[in-house]
Amino acid sequence: MLVAAAIFCLKRKGLRVLVTGGAGFVGSHLVDRLVARGDSVIVVDNLFTGRKENVMHHFGNPNFEMIRHDVVEPILLEVDQIYHLACPASPVHYKYNPVKTIKTNVVGTLNMLGLAKRIGARFLLTSTSEVYGDPLQHPQVETYWGNVNPIGVRSCYDEGKRTAETLTMDYHRGANLEVRIARIFNTYGPRMCIDDGRVVSNFVAQALRKEPLTVYGDGKQTRSFQYVSDLVEGLMRLMEGDHIGPFNLGNPGEFTMLELAKVVQDTIDPNARIEFRENTQDDPHKRKPDITKAKEQLGWEPKIALRDGLPLMVTDFRKRIFGDQDSATTATEGQ
Amino acid sequence: MLVAAAIFCLKRKGLRVLVTGGAGFVGSHLVDRLVARGDSVIVVDNLFTGRKENVMHHFGNPNFEMIRHDVVEPILLEVDQIYHLACPASPVHYKYNPVKTIKTNVVGTLNMLGLAKRIGARFLLTSTSEVYGDPLQHPQVETYWGNVNPIGVRSCYDEGKRTAETLTMDYHRGANLEVRIARIFNTYGPRMCIDDGRVVSNFVAQALRKEPLTVYGDGKQTRSFQYVSDLVEGLMRLMEGDHIGPFNLGNPGEFTMLELAKVVQDTIDPNARIEFRENTQDDPHKRKPDITKAKEQLGWEPKIALRDGLPLMVTDFRKRIFGDQDSATTATEGQ
To answer: Mainly localized where (chains A, B) (predicted)?
Structure first.
């Protein structure tokens, strides 16, 4: 009887969920949704690119906790689900210390998989469209093996994530762990790092600061841009669903860099100038998800068009760049 | 004066060389050459696939030392050069514990790169033709990025080695470490593991045991086979030379599995039967090195033809399988 009572005590109403990298751009939006639905959420973040400001609005909530911890070191927690997002995701950040990036992707993922195995939690890896490299197939389906340079300056991220996927599947095959793999395509929205060198944040920050928009190469390389709430919805459906993946999560709407510059001009400043610069090494020429699999198996597809999502991000960037009085940290528009 | 004398004491005639995986098939032949030229050689090996028997003939030599150690754990040593070979290399062995294979390739390489940086040693990574996966270019040049499945059952080795290459280049770019990268193609010779599932050792052992030679698929997939002394010569030229690589080290002579079976029949037993079996997943269809770069920059090319090298391996296998009195451990024919 005492044992039964004790076990009964362990039962909780909502799920206990760990979000590594939960103070980051995508992570913090995911945390908002999980907290809103009544889960107990633990964020583990070393705050290398994450920001306390992104989750501070949950600090008074007993169902929320933030631990300053680097996933390269093991940690013991008791949860039901692990969303593993921890890793710098923009070239500026992941190239800063390439060896650390690989450690985060490989040793960090190993630690979180080990934790998931120990406590019987379901594990979701946020991988990336970068596993396709500079793709020779267009659009990219999940069965495409990719075209990645193993010894280039981006490889710390690309190869690191590919190895993280391998580890995830090896734990699934070898230890029967419940795993999920998402391959995330370009995402934008409020709380994005302002100076991370990514094209959307670059253009928006430049237009707001009255600087010219810098386009690399001829501006004809394409990207697809997904609003962050669409991605968060996809991640949660993937975690709750029955399929392992990998699943492409991205918006198949394809824009050239020049088209994107035009949308930013239309949204912020019609007089913004465009400046061309030499392209960086290894920059993929095109990237566009085939999301047939996610549509069929997760019933998911993005809902927010670029011209609708961009203004929501601009509002947040304006507040953070110009220090408006209204706090930007609770920006949840469009979700 | 005392300091000068102390430093003078530290000077040695030959080089101090660390060979990780030095008790393995390739490693032990490399050790033989290094010891023969007067180097002080330290072997680090966990003996997972390596065998003490392969290096026991050096045990009385003061210039030789073997340490039973797993490179997944750090180790501190003082040497001038590090040949980093430690990793199970046959599918049977590297699939045995895929997570451990990734740890060996990533954490093991990290540890050895960290050691090299600390002591200012030159570091050579033995990578693999597996980084090309199931190649869409034939033959493979070093600039080809490969066609590797990130989530398959071979990925622990393929992706692990790709990430090891990335780490090696990141240490070179970031810490100015002197590095060398070799991409090794199929190699055979005395001291190869007898039951490692590789096609040459399989066929030779089967023919000797009067079992049918098992050919997977239609037998038309091709491989190139390099005799171990040719590889060792290439590794040493690469280490001593001025070029980083990656360099393909392999024999461009291309054989189908059926042609190889024929050579084995001619060498061992003309009456050996051939048996066809279903192919394994992810098995590459063809693999053949373009060695132009190694020829031009290292002045290296293989010298031993398959019909000349195979009998040397057969002699060794015969001794080990049938337990002949003559020791097989000093087999250095053909070097």
So the answer is: Golgi
Cα distances (angstroms) measured from residue A269 to each of A117, A213, A262, A275, A313:
51, 11, 10, 15, 15
CATH code, A162: 3.40.50.720
Residues of B in contact with A170 (CB under 8 A): 98-99, 102, 155-156
At B211-264, the pLDDT tens digits run 999 998 889 988 889 999 999 999 999 999 999 999 999 999 989 999 999 999
Q: Determine, yes or no, domain membership for B216.
A: yes
**Number of domains present in the structure of chain A:** 1
pLDDT over 80 (residue A73): yes
pLDDT digits (tens, 9 = 90+) for A43-70: 999 999 999 999 999 999 999 999 999 9
User: Across chain B, where does the E strand assignment appear?
Assistant: 16-20, 40-45, 64-68, 81-84, 122-128, 179-184, 187-188, 213-216, 222-224, 226-227, 247-249, 254-256, 274-277
State how beta strands A81-84 and A226-227 pair. Answer: unpaired
A164 touches chain B (CB under 8 A): no
What pLDDT was estimated at residue B328?
A: 43
Does residue B2 form part of some domain?
no
Asked if A108 reaches chain B (Cβ–Cβ under 8 Å), the answer is no
**A133 Cα to chain B: minimum distance (Å):** 10
Residue A257 forms part of a structural domain: no
pLDDT tens-digit series, residues B94-126: 999 999 999 999 999 999 999 999 999 999 999
Residue B157: active-site member: yes
ipTM confidence = 0.88
Per-residue pLDDT reduced to its tens digit, A194-240: 988 889 999 999 999 999 999 988 899 888 899 999 999 999 999 99
Sign, CA torsion B247/B251/B254/B257: negative
Residues 6+ apart with CB under 8 A from A96: A88
- The DSSP bridge partners found for residue A81 are A17, A122
Q: Which of B81, B98, B163, B175 is CA-nearest to residue B128?
A: B163
Task: Report yes or no on A82 lying in a domain.
Answer: yes
CA distances from A253 to A225, A291, B21 (A): 7, 11, 50
Domain housing B164: 15-322
Of the residues A83, A157, A171, A227, which is catalytic?
A: A157
